[in-house]
Fold each of these.
Amino acid sequence: MKRDIYSQLLIWKNSPRRKPLILRGARQTGKTYILQEFGKKEFDNVLYFNFEEDTRLDSLFSQSLDPKNIISNLSLHSKKKILPERHLIIFDEIQVSNSALNCLKYFQEKAPEYYIAAAGSLLGIKLSSPKSFPVGKVNFLDLLPMTFYEFLEGMGEGALREYLENPDQVQPLPEAFHLELTDLLRKYYFCGGMPEAVQCMADGNSVQEVRTIHKEILISYALDFAKHAHSSDIPKLSQIWDSIVVQLARENKKFMFSAIRKSARARDYENAITWLEDAGLILRVFCANTPKQPLAAYLQKNIFKIYMLDVGLLGAMADQGGEILVRGEQIFHEFGGAFTENYAAQQMRAIFGPGLQYWKNRNGKAEVDFLFETKEGIFPLEVKAGINLKSKSLQFFSTKFNPSQIFRTSLRNLHKDGPLCNIPLYCLESLPRIVTQSSL
């Protein structure tokens, strides 16, 4: 599967400030695959070490963290000579070994000629622990589920992706392309962006087989709760995890602790939410009631929404069957538009990074699904599941703050009407380019 992160790996390889790389991401997002593919294509050889599969590896780091000794031990263990500059060393599931994590500091300081890439399913959890890793000695990249544009590539529709990525101007797409992309979006809502599920669908397997893959991934996440979380947090993790579908089905999708249990308090669950966030399993979108720069300064940390990392996994959690694919636009409206909002959150995370925001006025009568920031300014984005559109909150925001442009994403075709630009849901990844085009 072709992944967009490949270009970032190339930048890392050629950077004059290159350090050992840590690739973070949830389980089953394809970290091992992309690192091995990158190594095969860009280096003479790949040395792969998995700390979870080979429990003896940790002992190679126990006596000394000096890079020369580590390289000597790894060469002897793998029976392969490791060459600087020419070989890529992959440390997989590195969170299992504190010593291996700490040795990366010394490679950066004493042996920068070696190319090292580390990955792990729960690295975000490990690195959030005190004294777990020396700050400033590594480069970071995050691997997320495949975006819709990556899904198009995976489904053999790369030409459509290229077409969407290069809009000459903001104008409606030909109806034939619009309908075809809407149909592909419907499939993405069901399949999501987990690489194994996308490959299964691309190979022409049944939707039941795709859903089986989703269920297996969800089981692996639940097992991680039991295996890696603090014992006191395990019940809370499960309660939060199991409540996500219910929370998103509500008209007001603000996360409510009372939906977990009546007596639940935020301070009792914050560690568990942070664990899920650090593991890459959820996306948290915080409320901001003032669209000023920097947005992070105006967040209300106690008011937020929680979405799943992947819309396909959300469908599996909700026991959504494959028959939904033959029911026209119904999949876009499921659970009060929750799938569409989750889809939008997933794409926005890929575009703008973590720390997503939405806007709500102080009396709670108007709400816009996302705020985003580009070099042109701060803008609102309203998410609609269908084509029958009412935008009272968006218009309220426009009147109150007078942004130069306002944006809505829906099933309607690309269209600009004064300051309002409607972006098709399937074109959401092109949002930064459309903002620039719209401002010309």
Amino acid sequence: MTTLLILDSQADAYNEFVKNAHLPGLNVLLATDPSGLPEGAALAEVVLAPPGLLIGALPRLTSLRWVQSTWAGVESLLAPELPRNYLLSGVKGVFGTQMAEYTLCYMLAHERQVIQRFDSQRQGAWDHRMPGQLAGKHAVFLGLGSIGGECALRCRQFGMRTSAVTRSGAQTALVDKHFQVENLPQAVSDADYLVMSLPDTPETRHLVDGPVLDALPPHAVIINVGRGRSLDQQALLSAMKAGELAGAVLDVFEHEPLAPGDALWDCPGITITAHTSAVSFVEDIAPLFLANLGRYLAGEQPHHLVDFTRGY
């Protein structure tokens, strides 16, 4: 008998998917908060949980062998003082559509000047300034995993030119041009949009810094849906205040939530969203988990395992 602990605010909804899968030899425990773990949780060898809740439960999960995260970001579980004697699966191939919609939403808003026209309407002003268009614009993707790849695909459908910057610079059919990360300044030198979807690793921290921002054209817009620490926020503020960039759309930050008095809030040209470019819907995560759970119960390795050393 394998004990599964579902630790999530929507534990009941996840359990419905598990029950409907009719998996044999499974004892399911439910909890919505680590402070209220059910009796027998110490016997759980499989846990489905977001990292934020799991951290508080880890010391009591003495039989743990595999965790399926419900979030794409697992950085909080990689702290060196936390145990690593279990398998950890991330989420892949689930959030691409949501993040592509987010990216295109703000690209279109920028080209069509949606926010400015809304302000003009509130002032009763006939705003006849000319809009732009996405067709022919150049989008550079820093990171071309499942998220960056989906964003690139959607941008090409809008007639945009696309480039990718990756560690290997390997050729794929998803984009028109490929660059290695060492050539990042060259890659962004004619970008209209720089779309960041990087994981949080020592190699990616402040990868987009002052010199990279200087290499961007003054009409460029940055969209960061990856991890906040991959972008030097102070360097971005300096560039925006100096008029060296047209805008930035930030969904992630070095420290979250963003402090009320942070200068980013009031900086003209910066749009802030509260880490909502993609959310973990039960109906999206549950099928991925069940497929992985089936592999685990069959004695096979689950998919999307995280390397604790590399950070993704």
